[in-house]
Amino acid sequence: MPVTTASGTTVLTPLAGEEVGGTRRNRMVWQCRRGLPSFPSRFDKPANIDPLPGGYRLASGTTAVAVEVVTETRLWWFSRALPAWFGGGGPRRTDIYSWAVMPQRYGTLMPAPDVTVCG
């Protein structure tokens, strides 16, 4: 089952590196998501992308793509009931989340003004 259906989300976030006042910083170019809106993106706020995890900042004039994939798992009815019999409980839903940031080697990810980016 793809993560763009009722059980998950896929988010693409192109990022650009720029220099402002002699300091490198990252900025979000655009964002496209498919799937459940209830899963927040970790790359949608300036504080989350500048710097990227690990303190990484893109060089001025370069771009990268952050790809996030999240899906949810739910315990079967029997698996939910079994821990309760033994005094447990635990979460009924668990999110499985992964992300990757891939720098671009050629070209940029800046869309032309008349291009639909997420359609």
Please describe what this structure looks like.
There is one protein chain. The protein starts with 7 loop residues before the first strand and ends in a 16-residue tail after the last strand. It has one domain. The chain is built from two helices and five strands; from the N terminus they run E-E-E-H-E-H-E. It is mostly beta strands. Strands 1, 2, 3, 4 and 5 form a five-stranded antiparallel beta sheet that branches. 14% of the residues are buried. 11% of the residues lie in helices and 39% in strands.
Can you count the helices? 2
Class by SSE composition: mainly beta
Mean pLDDT: 76
Residues in helix, %: 10-25%
**Low-pLDDT residue spans:** none
Output the radius of gyration. Answer: 19 Å
Q: Beta fraction of the residues?
A: 35-45%
Overall tally of domains: 1
What letter string, H or E per element, gives the SSE order? EEEHEHE
Shape: elongated
What profile does the largest beta sheet have? 5 strands, antiparallel
E-strand count: 5
Distance from N terminus to C terminus (CA atoms, Å) equals 21 Å
List the helices and strands and how they pair.
Elements: E1 8-20, E2 23-28, E3 32-35, H1 46-49, E4 63-74, H2 77-85, E5 93-103
Antiparallel strand pairs: 1-2, 1-3, 1-4, 4-5
